[in-house]
Amino acid sequence: MNPRILRVGIGGPVGSGKSMLIERVVPILAKKNYRVCIISNDVISKEDADRMRKNLATEQGLLPESMVIGLATGGCPHTAIREDPSINLAVIEEIESKYNDLDLIIIESGGDNVTTTFSPALADYFIYIVDVSGGDKYPRKGGLGIETSDLLVINKIDLAPMVDADLDVMVRDAKIVRIDKPYVLVNCKTDQGIEDVARHILHDVLFDQPPKNLLSQIK
């Protein structure tokens, strides 16, 4: 039996930028020779998975097309990652039985609910993403996603002037609500903050260890 593959869950409201965040972070990991699989959860559509497959696999060749998997959960997206993650765990079990050179599985799931979290049985590390267009009140509203995620990403910071959002207020409130937990301000379109997100994954999840394919060569 192949060893368990480390997993990162990325959750947040629809349109907050989860897929684009993945599309920006994966090239950084691939450049360092880490091999990644992506599982994208949606209620009905597999549109996000299709887009990531096109951008990351077909066009950039950063991973095989089979390593971007779309799941249509057919119900509440929170259930498939929290209360009953069996549909995701079944896919992961199949992946782990077939591949022993993967370093990371990224699991994406939407949901318009600040109570979004990932079951500890599903994800080792949880990134919650919100976007500035929701207003600078977002961090202080709290909720499990904002308060307990391992990393909070505040995306689309370029929109702050257009929606009259104060980034300083968002930073202040994030510090208060999250206490010592980290947060990153991000603009996925310009890659601002993306290196910081990748750095957290490399350090906090992968523990700065060499990729499995390179580690096997060293041994």
TrEMBL record:
<keyword id="KW-0143">Chaperone</keyword>
<dbReference type="GO" id="GO:0005737">
    <property type="term" value="C:cytoplasm"/>
</dbReference>
<comment type="function">
    <text>Facilitates the functional incorporation of the urease nickel metallocenter. This process requires GTP hydrolysis, probably effectuated by UreG.</text>
</comment>
<dbReference type="InterPro" id="IPR003495">
    <property type="entry name" value="CobW/HypB/UreG_nucleotide-bd"/>
</dbReference>
<keyword id="KW-0547">Nucleotide-binding</keyword>
<comment type="similarity">
    <text>Belongs to the SIMIBI class G3E GTPase family. UreG subfamily.</text>
</comment>
<keyword id="KW-0342">GTP-binding</keyword>
<dbReference type="GO" id="GO:0016151">
    <property type="term" value="F:nickel cation binding"/>
</dbReference>
<protein>
    <recommendedName>
        <fullName>Urease accessory protein UreG</fullName>
    </recommendedName>
</protein>
<dbReference type="Pfam" id="PF02492">
    <property type="entry name" value="cobW"/>
</dbReference>
<dbReference type="GO" id="GO:0043419">
    <property type="term" value="P:urea catabolic process"/>
</dbReference>
<dbReference type="GO" id="GO:0005525">
    <property type="term" value="F:GTP binding"/>
</dbReference>
<feature type="domain" description="CobW/HypB/UreG nucleotide-binding">
    <location>
        <begin position="8"/>
        <end position="182"/>
    </location>
</feature>
<comment type="subunit">
    <text>Homodimer. UreD, UreF and UreG form a complex that acts as a GTP-hydrolysis-dependent molecular chaperone, activating the urease apoprotein by helping to assemble the nickel containing metallocenter of UreC. The UreE protein probably delivers the nickel.</text>
</comment>
<dbReference type="InterPro" id="IPR004400">
    <property type="entry name" value="UreG"/>
</dbReference>
<keyword id="KW-0963">Cytoplasm</keyword>
<dbReference type="InterPro" id="IPR027417">
    <property type="entry name" value="P-loop_NTPase"/>
</dbReference>
<feature type="binding site">
    <location>
        <begin position="12"/>
        <end position="19"/>
    </location>
    <ligand>
        <name>GTP</name>
    </ligand>
</feature>
<dbReference type="GO" id="GO:0003924">
    <property type="term" value="F:GTPase activity"/>
</dbReference>
<keyword id="KW-0996">Nickel insertion</keyword>
